[in-house]
Amino acid sequence: MTDVLIVGAGPTGLTLACDLTRRGIACRIVEQAAAPAAGSRGFTLKPRSLEALDDLGVADRILAAGDIRGWLRFHLGTEPLFDLRLPPVPADLSRPYPNPVALPQWRTESILRDRLAELGGKVEFGRGLTGFDADDEGVTATLEGGERVRARYLVAADGGRSLVRRTLGLPFTGSTTEDMRALIADVRIDGLDRGSGTHLWVTADGHMLAARPIPHADTWQVVTSLEPGQEGDLGTVRRALAGRTGRADLQASDPAWLSTWRYNLRMVERYRVGRVLLAGDAAHVHSPFGGHGMNTGIQDAYNLGWKLALVIQGAARAELLDTYEAERLPVAREILADSDRRLKGRVPPRAIRPVLRLILKSAMARQQRRTRHDHPVYRTGPLTRHLTGRRGRVRAGDVAPDAPVMLDGRQTRLFDLLRGPHFTALTFGADPGLTDPRVRAYTVVREGQAGLVDTTGHLHRMYGGRPGTTVLIRPDGYIGLMADTPAEPADYLRRL
After folding, report:
1. Which among 32, 77, 464 has a CA at the least distance from the CA of 282?
2. Which side of the chain, N or C, has fewer Cβ within a 10 Å radius?
3. DSSP class of residue 266?
């Protein structure tokens, strides 16, 4: 018997497997495909996902393999309209990963598989799920080849066509627009300037073509809208390049991967059915506009991992798993709405070009800046308690900010102290008085005093930290509680 059976080895399943394995939870991760996926697919890792991957120990590898420049050259028809080059934002005291990272999904998955192997786990390829039965004590799953696996919990990370979701009979409500399709391909393009970053062409009839250079490779990810009934192949890419760019010198070749995408906007209304939970595309699918897909799945898994671990270890009641849906479902609903708004905000075909240049460039710059600050919050969630007046810049339900600190004479980061399976308590100028084994507790002090030294005063400013204020940070880096006395965290932890 295993504690958790994870179905699907994309970024969602791999994030969960890494998180559970490092917490000492026995899990298996099975994948129907016989080998790792090769396509670029999801391409952008957002700052909050990078913070989660920092906790899992792979953010440095992601940064080394990716690109943070985010440059864009926009073409209206065959003519360039503007270049958008927002310089990368320097890391600050609060956020060490302020810039999205461009990285093909196959590379993200490879890095996570390597990390899982370091933790002692592995992906079982060619072992797809064929069926399962659930009861009050666990789940009995059948894998390809006939093996039957007994698990305490099953997590569906098996994508938009999830067998688990369909077996449960969960409605996947929303819409599918059959005549709105696109081809996504990884190809070589000769003649296109990689130094300009992503190229985007929008034609007068509303069609589009995007070409994004894949970091540390000589290939591009190409996305091109398809006519009704049109098939997606290398010939389609070549015709789109010639027709939508107006350039005969661009030559596409050597396709490494091609896939046809259709417009889906769907989600479930339940993330948990007894011992079965859904995450990532198994729970919600939407357009690629906004770069939400892979990030939402990673953050689903990161929210779920610590809760599953505490329940399995007997350190929390099973009802804690209900908070996964309560926190993540509203995020998915808002992401679907944002993705839909971005898709419908395509270029008006007959707009006046000088005005359009100003409007579009400004709008796209705002979107890039918003992406840099894309940190979902749980301020109204069931695990959020704010018992003090608002004195600082952050509140319970927000992501805890990073800060440089000194501990036992050693310079470190708050994020380094948060890393791992524990809660973290910060009490300003007082002894936290917490003996709960799930918690690492620190007294936050000014320079020259004994305790966790706030070397820049940053934590005091962010939390409005007057003496006695206690901040309880969850294992996923969110602030669960801000209170006036150390007694409140003990009550919060008992409620788990």
Report:
1. 32
2. N
3. E
Give me the residue label for tokens 């002894």: 431
Look over the chain and give the mean of its residue pLDDT values, rounded to a whole number: 89
The helix/strand/coil state of 291 is: coil
pLDDT at residue 261 tops 90: no
Phi, psi at 294, each rounded to 5°: -60, -40
- Listed in sequence order, the residues at least 6 apart from 115 whose beta carbon sits closer than 8 Å to its beta carbon are 18, 56, 57, 58
For the cut 50, the answer to whether the pLDDT of residue 351 exceeds it is no
d(CA 106, CA 128): 19
Residue-wise DSSP of 337-350: HHHHHHHHTPPPTT
Give me the phi and psi of 211, to 5 degrees please: -130, 120
CA distance 444 to 438: 19
Q: Which of 122, 13, 117 is nearest to 57 (CA)?
A: 117
> What does the DSSP assignment read for 13-38?
HHHHHHHHHHTT--EEEEESSSS---
CA atoms within 13 A on the CB side of 486: 20
For the CA atoms of 127, 130, 134, 140, the dihedral, rounded to the nearest 10 degrees, stands at -50
- SS3 label, residue 313: coil
Q: DSSP states of 430-482 as a string?
A: S------TTEEEEEEE-TTSSSEE-TTSHHHHHHT--TT-EEEE-TTSBEEEE
Q: Which residue has the tokens 């918690």?
A: 439
| Cβ atoms 290, 368 nearer than 8 A | no
Residue 300 has pLDDT above 90, yes or no: yes
* C-alpha distance across the termini of the chain, in Å: 26
pTM: 0.93
* Longest distance between any two alpha carbons in the chain, whole Å: 72
